[in-house]
Amino acid sequence: xxxxxxxxxxxxxxxxxxxxxANTLVAVQGRGIVISEPSVVAVRKGTKQVEAVGDMxxxxxxxxxxxxxxxxxxxxxxxxxxxxTEAMLRYFIDKANGRRGPFRPRVVVxxxxxxxxxxxxxxxxxxxxxxxxxxxxxxxxxxxAIGAGLPVAEPIGSMIVDIGGGTTEVAVISLAGIVVSESVxxxxxxxxxAIIKQFKDLHGVTIGDNTAEQIKFQLGCxxxxxxxxxxxVRGRDLRTGMPRxxxxxxxxxxxxxxxxxxxxxxxxxxxxxxTAPELASDLIERGITMAGGTSQLRGLPELLSRETGLxxxxxxxxxxxxxxxxxxxxxxxxxxxxxxxxxxxx
Length: 346
What we know:
Elements: H1 3-10, E1 15-19, E2 23-28, E3 32-38, E4 41-44, E5 50-53, H2 55-58, E6 68-71, E7 74-75, E8 78-79, H3 82-97, E9 106-111, H4 117-129, E10 134-139, H5 140-147, E11 158-163, E12 168-174, E13 177-184, H6 188-203, E14 205-206, H7 209-219, E15 230-237, E16 243-249, H8 250-256, H9 258-273, H10 277-286, E17 288-291, H11 300-308, E18 312-314, H12 321-330, H13 333-342
Parallel strand pairs: 1-9, 9-10, 11-17, 17-18
Antiparallel strand pairs: 1-2, 2-3, 4-5, 4-6, 7-8, 11-12, 12-13, 14-15, 15-16
Helix pairs in contact: 3-4, 5-12, 6-7, 7-8, 9-11
């Protein structure tokens, strides 16, 4: 590294960013996660004037006046609103970088493995415009595998299933490269929408995204439960327009999300079917590692194990694996270069 580069590094923090559909996490190597906030922006309606970002914007969902619009600038893991994504990234980079003078940080950003070159370019340009001096993109499953502590550089097959808000990323990794992968745009957000639809169809009640997410955390499970748990949920009656409370069971919620759970399981099976025998034999011993916030859904690791016949473990701190994996690469540029050369990052 040049003298100028070393000086710049002394006065800026290099950042690993998990730019997710539901949440954005920022990690600094040696310090861990420094930011974990929703990928949400509140703007003045009809304009791009930003009123709030992250936590402050999410609390406005469903409670905002007509003059304020709350939007998610990321959809299915990719940028749907370039200008607002830049504003959101600038907010997170400035907040993480703190008072570090004029020197801009280097950034590794995780992206879904299935995005195209145009989408990659949009993420790179947004990060640079938001204040990054150098930007590298790495696929989410690779970052998750590194954050989960898998031996990605060794000639050993490792399988990662990263289930976030917008996408489920499944990959078999060996020798610092992704050998087989599948990216499906079914994950936590789709589960929330399935719960919202269930309320409308079954109870004639509409609920908001935040309420659906809370129900998923409290009652969601990957298989139909035998022990019934009930909670009271408030929504708006579609017939009268009035507020209404209803009793909801974990069985109802599990039934609502079964199509999405099946899609996730099938994506894992598809990757296993395309895995070479030599790597498949490694997986029999090493099993599957799960990461991402939605991987914590009750009973999902056990369901995957039954469906695949492989041992399945949940990574330590699964929600933060991707961001921590990105930050770890900044501390080991040789490893980053090796991964770049395999084509799993750029």
